[in-house]
Amino acid sequence: MAGRRLVIEGASVVTLDPKLGDLPDADILIEDDEIVAVGPDLGVSDAERIDAAGQIAIPGFANTHLHTWQHALRGVCADWTVKDYVRCWRIHLGPMYRPEDMYVGNYSGGLDALNAGVTLVVDYCHNVVTRDHAREALRGLRDSGVRALFGLAYTPVLDHGFAAAPSFEVENPDLPDHDSRIAFAKQLAGEEFSSKDGLVTLAIVPQEIEIARTWEEVVEEFHSARELDAQISLHANQSLTGHRWEDVRKLGRADLLGPDILFVHCSFSADDELKMIADAGASVSVAAETEMQMGMGFPITGKLLELGVAPSLGVDITSNGSGDMFAQMRLALQVGRMLGDQPYYERETMPEDVSLTTRQALEWATVNGAKGAGLGDVTGTLTPGKQADVVLIDGNHFNLIGWDKSDPVGTVVMQANAGNVSTVIVGGNVVKRDGAMVGVDPAEVRRQVEGSAGYVRGWADEHGGILPQPRIELGF
Questions:
Q1: Domain containing residue 262
Q2: What is the CATH number of the domain that holds 298?
Q3: pLDDT tens-digit series, residues 27-47
Q4: If we measure between CA atoms, which residue out of 48, 46, 26 comes closest to residue 37?
């Protein structure tokens, strides 16, 4: 029996495949979960049809850093520094989250990503209080339908070591120490990830090196990830504590660097450390919006490119900013251009050209993100043989009327927003069509989110607020 066939017709197709290039009026044929053909007038008559006239087709966005579990408390960090973020989420609120709150955050966060054209999320789940917290977070991602790396963190939630323990009891913690977390990762891998055919795959998140319980634990966590054949993602070199952190250098000295590492931030990295990342074939996720607000230094997209590292982009926390990758592209691009112009200003002259292009920015948000997640052969370009992760951006919307047909990339990066995302396909499955999510009841999602947020806020009201005062003292 023939498989499912779907054809997208008449789109301006930005394949980001250097052999295929941009196609101003073309079709995309999908069979089951795979792209099988891309080109003008494919002449397909025996497939479900999506009319994409006036629309731009791009690969789905890859958000390579997202603490998805925080999604129900959207926007609470709008005026905070990173220290306030740690005080709230890592010390105060995180330990009292219930497994059902983890589910709601990851489920609604996954839907939010899809709605905005993000088909791949690297979830950084660093609030694994109990085994059920992890299992419910994983279930939320799977139920949402997003392609994801589930980043199971070895982060100690109840006894982290850089501040006083919470002043309240958390019932029945069943991951009390490092050994139990290592054992649980192996258990979860066997129970939930024995097959790699699903949309969600396992990643491992080691402790942040500078604030880890011990260096020996970090080393064992890296070895654990590789025994499980899991990608590794790690906050690195993102803070100043009287000195620069040397996370990358420490990993290099221990011979732990490798192409399976997706570093996050690296905003205070020395150039030689970035060169070590490049030489190892590792990658870096830049979270421009959070970094610029929270005192984490300038986004380093331009510097990464200069030193041979392929940057990708992460939203980081929707408890602070939007889940909109269009915003992340523009922020990272424009601050990179600004920093690239600085040498001209120092010579009291003006630049002749921009230092970074919109095509590079779109590649950060798609091609590079897929590679950084270890899925570059699966997704990231509209290439026949890859998974059908496709996004249509509707150029017929009011804010895109008159878009430059000769430069669809410039339109996507500089003019579009998440509201222009009309259709989203993940692994051949249409999850958003004609501007509406498929099979999702917004009222029910809102009920779940408001229920979880209401519980968390109610607890916080009885324990000093979302960000209690006086501020919790930190040991870094």
A1: 61-372
A2: 3.20.20.140
A3: 999 999 999 999 999 999 999
A4: 26
